[in-house]
Amino acid sequence: MDFQVVILAGGFSSNLQPLVSKEVPKALLPVANRPVLSYVLDLLESSNLKDLIVVVEGEDAALKVGGWISSACVDRLHVEVAAVAENVGTAGALRAIAHHLTAKDILIVSGDIVSDVSPGAVAATHRRHDASVTSMLCAEPVSGPSESGVAGGKDKTKKPACYDIIGLDSSKQFLLHIATAAEIKKDTRIKKSILCAAGKMEIRSDLMDSHIYAFKRSVLQKVLDQKPTFRSLKQDVLPYLVRTQLRSEVFPDEKTVEDNGKNNMQNNEVVLSHILSNASLPSFHQVYESGLNSRKTYKCCVYIADESKYCVRLNSIQAFMDVNRDVIGDANHLSGYTFSSHHNIVHPSAELGSKTTVGPHCMLGEGSQVGDKCSVKRSVIGRHCRIGSNVKVVNSVVMDHATIGDGCSIQGSVICSNAQLQERVALRDCQVEAGYVVYAGGEHKGETFARK
Amino acid sequence: MGAQKKGGARVSDDSEEQSRQRLQAILLADSFTTKFRPVTLERPKVLLPLVNVPMIDYTLAWLESAGIEEVFVFCCAHSTQIIDYLETSEWRTHPNLVVRTIESHKSISAGDALRYIYEQQTETSQIQGDFVLVSGDTVSNMPLADLIQEHRERKKRDEKAIMTMVIKKSKPSLITHQSRLGTDQLFIAVDPLTKQLLHYEEDKVDHARGSVCLDKSLMESNPSVLLYNDMQDCYIDICSPEVLSLFEDNFDYQHLRRHFVKGVLVDDIMGYKIFTHEIGSSYAARVDNFRSYDTVSKDIIQRWTYPYVPDINFGGNRPVKLGRQGIYRACDVVQSRSADVGASTVVGYGTKIGNGDRILNSVIGNGCSIGSNVVIEGSYIWNNVTIEDGCEIRNAIVCDGVRIRAGAVLEPGVVLSFKVVVGRDFVVPAYSKVSLLQQPMKEDSDEELEYADSGSGTADRLSGLSLEMESKGSELGPDGAGYIWEVCEGAHDEEWKHSVAPIPEDKLAEITQAMDDYDDMEDESVVPTSGELKSDADSINTDVNDPGDDYGYFEKEVEGTFLRAVEEGIKVELGVLEINSLRLSYNMESADCAGAIFYSMMKLAVDTPHSSASELYKTASSIIAKWKGLLGFYVKQTDEQIEVMMKFEEMCQETAKELGPLFAQILHVLYEKDVVQEDAIMRWAEEKAGADEADKVYLQQCETFIQWLKEASEEEDEDDDEEED
């Protein structure tokens, strides 16, 4: 497939402080003891997309990510790692690596997605409609940005405060309107010209743009060139394309060239795309185009993932917890591990003390030691952790090399690698930074432990 | 007739409960608009012939066959004509349908009509339950029984579901889905599952914008909303009795859609809901304007409205025979051998067609006489019209008794009202509306009421007018009679939209152009530079700019008031009253008033001729002395006093630089006159202490004064202390 894949792996995201650190950029955060980036790479590989560019914000992070990639999958995939400046936004990142892009179509995937939706299907939809941009939508809930991050956990039943508003045509193939979380605090405004052309629009607020996009390279690069102020793909580029789909400003010149040279071929392509899209009726784009003023239009398509598919972005602490829980729980086919008959994974080299129980939906990494009379429920424990006796770990993530003293109780918390909890520490909804030491006997709730 | 019986039988077979409740309908025999003027000055709209049958007959025949047992015909304009017509028609004695008339002359809107019916209702309680609300210009063949059943069941489940609105998918049109019927663009949002109506927006009425605005709460409460542009509102509503009482409660509701529907949608206290019902195969449309008159006529000729077509008797009409190519011809038509009557044409009884005539896509009424070599295309010729030789008529409506003299030409879109005479070889310009009656004065036209006078009055005026006309000639050529109505401004560009003539190409292009202009405007204002930035920019636009502008106006008004007060020597108390009223109308704080008044005072001082700074100081202090009462009224709080000082500072920096050097002195005056208290000055000084150097100019100027104040207060404190001791 002539698709180039760009993975936007971010850098040291501030949303995820203190989980990310100098040592661990966002892309390498462990989800069930594997870097989150590995899920994306596996997903792409399963769709036979092997030509990848991983874009990382910041040189340091790029080195880290590059190091991991070369150790993990250099033999399977052709991966380039490109570093871009920090805080340039997703559009800025693409601008910076524009010279690497050569293929006709570009698939852009966020590096923090844990999903089983096939990117190949998105690419195929894109091709079938000869679209300028195709966006993948999946059903809610996808955990929103970090608002509920620290305190969260309880209000899962509530509707997230942020959601996307998406307008689809009646066939649910074309994207007619998109308003992202930032805009929807206001009333929704739908462009009449697009609505008139389509006749009918279904506006959904239960779908989420999941940061997998296929772009026509020419369109993407034109937009990036012409609109230097655009920073974000989701908030600027995509809405812009959707808004102007019926009167393309993006490629007036290009079209004339095509008209002169390969008229016939274009016709063929149109016929072909007709057949491919099984369209008995021409799409509204074509109707509109063939109208009086013969305007150039382009298509913004959507691929709507099946509701049973799993798709979560790891973009907040809450999402981090959720993803870890889901990957060893409800969505365990993603993890790539084989589960024991108790629905958990205990590495053979892990040592369990007497009367210690590891419940279902748990994971215990290589070489970790758990003392006596411990109880581990719905938690992920990394490699080479040392956990004392009488410790309770519930709904938590403990990263590699963490040390937990006797009598600790940990609920809904994240303990980063090399962190140390002394005896009888009780944590609830807390995050402990890598290498941090929590002193004995403390009782904490909803706190973040980090060195300033 | 067969269809009618079937309809009737079906309803009586239905459940017991339903048979207890008679199916009733309210038919508004008045559209409360002036779109059919000048024709409707002389005859009510519902009696205008649509393919040679009065419109109301279509509506009544449909209601009857749909199983409605009792219809209340609400008449307002020309009510006597309507009542007379119904008295003589076969509806009077119809076995299945009872037609009752309600007459009111005061009503000027559908809202008034329903309120009137509600009042009547309290006395007679004629309307027992759910009813169908239609207007007398509806042409439809949809079945109603199931819909009413659906409405009742929904009502039983949900008390608040008071109305079901019928919508129909309009024919796809490239440019606008509504242009076929000449109505405005309609945007409706519907819940896809429950079919509840969530949003209703008409272009034009809601000042046209490039986008449809959905309330954010709508999206919060509904995961999915269907937004339609390709639906047309049929104005057929199944209403529960609550609808009438809602009209009674909200006496300002006039229009069924603009006020009532929107009112219900916006009002979340009562929580009433409106649901929609989309009809698929049956026909429903409303003759709202000349364009829909044209469209619906064509639909009737093409039999979309079956069984209400010209060759079937449905309401006292004389059926005409259908020939090939959709040509309906009455049996006694006298047609010349050389005449060419083309497809989709209806020719009524007793009409004569002369040699070499060409008639296409037109409807010709009864008793017309058409000369030789006449061309009629896409036109509607009503009854007893005389067309002399060699005329050309394209896309026009020609009412009863019109005489078109030889060689005259009607350009597209012309409407000739009753008994107009077009002079020999006269060319009636496109889109003109011609009547024997003079165009009513502007004063009349703002109330949307067609003349409700009895027929005799109109006739008297008519005869008088035609006499007058004969003496002075006519606007329609030397031997013509009639006034060409001027198109009132504003409606001018609408003319082509509502006319019977097809929309010209250039107008179509214009619409698309306009569409894009909206787009451009939209883009310029809304295009975000970045998502985040955008919301900021927007909030600045909406939150800061607007009040800023308001404040500007307010300041001007206050200045004006103040200057007048100075000139006319108005008392301080009266000035306070005036400024208070300004404050309320602009919704300002008293600090704003203080700022504005002080600004006016200083401006007056600066504007008063002066030669030196000291003179300026004198004027300023005298003005302050004189008007401190006025200012003092608004500076009771420390915050307000600070506002005054800020304003002063701003003035010194921007508008009245002359005052700059006098800042400290004038501040001292303000202090002495008790306009500004010590606390305020201190706080101002504190606030300013952290500001930029440039901002501190005046603070430095006042340093000695502030120092003095501080010392004074300390002394005072000491005094106090001593006293306490």
Automatic annotation (TrEMBL), chain A:
Residues 347-430 form the EIF2B subunit epsilon/gamma LbH domain. One of its GO terms (molecular function) is translation initiation factor activity. It comes from Brassica oleracea var. oleracea. One of its GO terms (cellular component) is eukaryotic translation initiation factor 2B complex. Its main location: cytoplasm. It is found in: Cytoplasm, Cytosol. Residues 5-245 form the Nucleotidyl transferase domain. Keywords: Cytoplasm, Initiation factor, Protein biosynthesis. Acts as a component of the translation initiation factor 2B (eIF2B) complex, which catalyzes the exchange of GDP for GTP on the eukaryotic initiation factor 2 (eIF2) complex gamma subunit. Its guanine nucleotide exchange factor activity is repressed when bound to eIF2 complex phosphorylated on the alpha subunit, thereby limiting the amount of methionyl-initiator methionine tRNA available to the ribosome and consequently global translation is repressed. Component of the translation initiation factor 2B (eIF2B) complex which is a heterodecamer of two sets of five different subunits: alpha, beta, gamma, delta and epsilon. Subunits alpha, beta and delta comprise a regulatory subcomplex and subunits epsilon and gamma comprise a catalytic subcomplex. Within the complex, the hexameric regulatory complex resides at the center, with the two heterodimeric catalytic subcomplexes bound on opposite sides. This is Translation initiation factor eIF2B subunit gamma. Belongs to the eIF-2B gamma/epsilon subunits family. GO terms for biological process: cytoplasmic translational initiation. Pfam families: LbH_EIF2B (PF25084), NTP_transferase (PF00483).
UniProtKB/TrEMBL annotation, chain B:
Residues 523-550 are annotated as: Disordered. GO terms for molecular function: guanyl-nucleotide exchange factor activity; translation initiation factor activity; translation initiation factor binding. Its main location: cytoplasm. CDD domains: eIF-2B_epsilon_N, LbH_eIF2B_epsilon, W2_eIF2B_epsilon. One of its GO terms (cellular component) is cytosol. Residues 548-719 form the W2 domain. Keywords: Cytoplasm, Initiation factor, Protein biosynthesis. PROSITE patterns: W2. It is found in: Cytoplasm, Cytosol. Belongs to the eIF-2B gamma/epsilon subunits family. Component of the translation initiation factor 2B (eIF2B) complex which is a heterodecamer of two sets of five different subunits: alpha, beta, gamma, delta and epsilon. Subunits alpha, beta and delta comprise a regulatory subcomplex and subunits epsilon and gamma comprise a catalytic subcomplex. Within the complex, the hexameric regulatory complex resides at the center, with the two heterodimeric catalytic subcomplexes bound on opposite sides. This is Translation initiation factor eIF2B subunit epsilon.
